[in-house]
Amino acid sequence: MNITTFIGSSREESNSEQLADLVTRGIKHRKIYLKNLSIQPIHDLRHAEGGFQLVSDDYDTIIKAFLESDLIVFSTPIYWYSMSGIMKNMIDRLSQAIRDERFPQLKEHLQSIEAIVIAVGGDEPRIKGLPLIQQFQYTFDFLNMRFSTYILGEGNQPGDILQDQQALYQANLLNKRLKHL
Amino acid sequence: MNITTFIGSSREESNSEQLADLVTRGIKHRKIYLKNLSIQPIHDLRHAEGGFQLVSDDYDTIIKAFLESDLIVFSTPIYWYSMSGIMKNMIDRLSQAIRDERFPQLKEHLQSIEAIVIAVGGDEPRIKGLPLIQQFQYTFDFLNMRFSTYILGEGNQPGDILQDQQALYQANLLNKRLKHL
Amino acid sequence: MNITTFIGSSREESNSEQLADLVTRGIKHRKIYLKNLSIQPIHDLRHAEGGFQLVSDDYDTIIKAFLESDLIVFSTPIYWYSMSGIMKNMIDRLSQAIRDERFPQLKEHLQSIEAIVIAVGGDEPRIKGLPLIQQFQYTFDFLNMRFSTYILGEGNQPGDILQDQQALYQANLLNKRLKHL
Amino acid sequence: MNITTFIGSSREESNSEQLADLVTRGIKHRKIYLKNLSIQPIHDLRHAEGGFQLVSDDYDTIIKAFLESDLIVFSTPIYWYSMSGIMKNMIDRLSQAIRDERFPQLKEHLQSIEAIVIAVGGDEPRIKGLPLIQQFQYTFDFLNMRFSTYILGEGNQPGDILQDQQALYQANLLNKRLKHL
Question: Which PANTHER family match (chains A, B, C, D) (predicted)?
Fold first, then answer.
């Protein structure tokens, strides 16, 4: 069972990262800080002559993480009621990656991955975070990834998430399940 | 009546841009291609000592456009059921801009702006684009901008949007209304 | 091509009915006023000994309409951001109908039906009517019915819908398509 | 602190009722089984001459419960991704009640009520129950009621809810909070 967590916050030890850490506590996993990678926005050339062009940035790290994982935790702050821009750029580039001839097995491998979403926001996240969850659901449906569960936590100031008993409990439940996989 | 259109696609003459052009046809307006600007992802330093740091990129162009506009058209392709990453980065940085001491009047000015959203996608946009519309709504609510209307169009290949009669009609209706403002 | 329209309003010539009439104008179809039928709320006995009990009301009219239709228009006012209670009771009873031994072919027949939703409300229906559309989508997905399109119209006072140019145009477009089926 | 729970299921000891019972365990409260009341669907006469007509059913019980409560728990099974028809009919009639001259203080009193929603379903309730939550939110917003929290539980067979640890935990948390009100 290979687990990767993508950290989509721009802060150190953000609330969403802390919550993801609880989910994976005591479990071997890989953690990728999107803020430390250089990921270009997608240049959509699906219908252009020649198709997508090779981009010289760190995106291969992302593709490899997908290829080597059985379970992926997408951890993002809720910025303006959706995922952070750096995580959105990572997702957008999947359109290119699944057509990349260097990774012919990517599309099929995605179908074997379980996805978990951790999102933390300050403005009624359990209600106003719902469109974000629906978008992840449509995305995973499209890719045939299994969206097993999500946690919407509440937090604004650093560390706030440790006061959200419901989110902490969900993280602990999930941690127990992952330990038994 | 000053109108600005933000173009969030990474393509030339994208479907979403074409639809926005119909909305603003024959009307004096400014058009900003996000793909031609350098906009850094937000580095959330709200709670850090010293607060946000000055970022040296093209974001001031965005802030000025907001400050000089009475009506803004947000035109975006639907990438993975939400706005493009480059538009998301633009939105995210508003968190910094509304705290930027150089623009003390920004927050108040936003409250006088009318917002229109144009989004075009290939996978059942009138249903699967709904979470995107809800997120814009929450965002405009937070900023007290007036979200007057939106158009969800269908298109995949370049030019497809010109076959979507419903979207074209909505664009024409909106164009007539804007001409009489 | 057999078309049935379910009218879910409690008013005469409601806005939602008027809009549905435009969609089916000049086309042979059947119209069922839910307010004129007696439909009991579902009594969920799925897991009770003996299962569902025969209910003596007008629901067989509904089942027969489903069985005889290729296309169904669900026309409802938006009451409190969802369908009317009388339409909800009609939908709820489907749980019983698809298990009713008297209609063994119902479940399979539903999979061949195209569904259209017409909903009219007074409080920002194109945004606040979205959860209603999502619920219809989940429902049709579950039943494997094809949800081809929907119209969200704006209206409060009787006749208001005739001022909603966008909804009228969508109704006309749809009318043209249905005429060519 | 007067608490009322509306039970919207058509079953005895339904999963949604059991979950609501955990929320109110050890706390004085009133429980109203909608299935035991006769509540007519609304007949929308807002714009008709003479307005709404007096309906002779049990709805006054509902109005009085609203008037006497500081906190209301709406407990419903998720039928077809929304609230049960009997609960929908109860909600719809509020349109009449807030205009009922016999209860001039209702509209204002609603603004002082805290609302909690408990909904249990069998088909991915934490995702597919979200439109239901959004509808409650729009409804409470319209009425200026405070929507403090909700629980989406998973259950199909009677008693299933007792296996949903996350829902049970949320119920316990909420129970503790209510005990200290």
Answer: NAD(P)H-DEPENDENT FMN-CONTAINING OXIDOREDUCTASE YWQN-RELATED
Closest listed residue to residue B5, CA positions, set B59, B65, B58, B91: B65
Rg (CA), chain D: 16
Residue A48 lies in a domain: no
Whether A49 is in a domain gets the answer: no
Q: Is residue B49 part of a domain?
A: no
Tally C–D CB contacts below 8 A.
Answer: 127
**Among candidate residues D96, D86, D97, the one with its CA nearest the CA of residue D44:** D96
* Residue pointed to by tokens 């209910």: C55
HEC per residue, D113-127: CEEEEEEEECCCHHH
The reply to whether residue D149 touches residue A170, judged by beta carbons under 8 angstroms, is: no
Of all residues in chain D, the one with the smallest CA distance to C130 is: D131
Alpha carbon distance B3, B73 (integer Å) = 8
**Number of domains observed in the structure of chain A:** 1
Cα separation, A168 vs A152, whole angstroms: 10
Q: Name every chain C residue with its beta carbon within 8 A of the beta carbon of B137.
A: 127
Q: What is the pLDDT along chain D (181 residues), one digit of tens a residue?
A: 899 999 999 998 999 999 999 999 999 999 999 999 999 999 988 888 888 999 989 999 999 999 999 999 999 999 999 999 999 999 999 999 999 999 999 999 999 999 999 999 999 999 899 999 999 999 999 999 999 999 999 999 999 999 999 999 999 999 999 999 8
**How far lies A154's CA from each of A17, A42, A128, A132, B91, in Å?**
13, 31, 11, 15, 21
Q: Crossing angle, helix C130-143 and helix B130-143, to 10 degrees?
A: 160
Residues of D in contact with A126 (CB under 8 A): 149-150
- Whether B31 is covered by a domain: the verdict is yes
Query: What ipTM was assigned to the predicted interfaces of this complex?
Result: 0.88
**What range does the domain containing C171 cover?**
3-179
Residue C132 belongs to a domain with what CATH number? 3.40.50.360
